[in-house]
Amino acid sequence: MELLTRKGWTYEKDGALWLKTAQLLRQKYLAEGKSEKQVDKLDLKDDVLRRANGFYTYFAADIAYHRNKLEIRGFDLCINVWGLTTTATWPGSRLPWMGWGWTAPTGWWWC
């Protein structure tokens, strides 16, 4: 979380730490050539990383897990088995990877 905060990708609101998911994805999609109208239809929202009670969210734990696996422990491949509810968070979950300079996965592999 410290690295994301240093990059200016987080903010504090109501005692919680938030990832600027909406702003970052908006910039990414516009740079990729999507129109303002297309991006507006996505109804992008920011994600909570640390709740006001001090507990980190599952989303924050997932970010930390992937950083540990890929950067600290040096794995060069990570296979995630996710349920259907994860597809809504997939674009936002890739943001931290891009912040660390990794090439974020772009496709889906279904089993």
Keywords summarizing the entry:
single chain; 111 residues; alpha+beta; 3-stranded antiparallel sheet; 5 helices; 3 strands
Radius of gyration, in Å, reads: 15 Å
Gap between N and C termini, in Å?
32 Å
SS element count, helices: 5
**Helix-strand sequence:** HEEHHEHH
Shape: globular
Structure description:
The chain is α+β, with helices and mostly antiparallel strands. The chain is 41% helix and 11% strand. The chain has five helices and three strands, in the order αββααβαα. Strands 1-2-3 form a three-stranded antiparallel beta sheet. A hairpin with a 2-residue loop joins β1 and β2. It is globular, with a radius of gyration of 15 Å. The model has no long low-confidence stretch (mean pLDDT 81).
Short description:
With 111 residues, the chain is α+β, with helices and mostly antiparallel strands. Helices cover 41% and strands 11% of the residues.
Give the helix/strand layout.
Blueprint: H1 2-6, E1 10-13, E2 16-19, H2 21-31, H3 36-40, E3 47-50, H4 58-72, H5 90-99
Antiparallel strand pairs: 1-2, 2-3
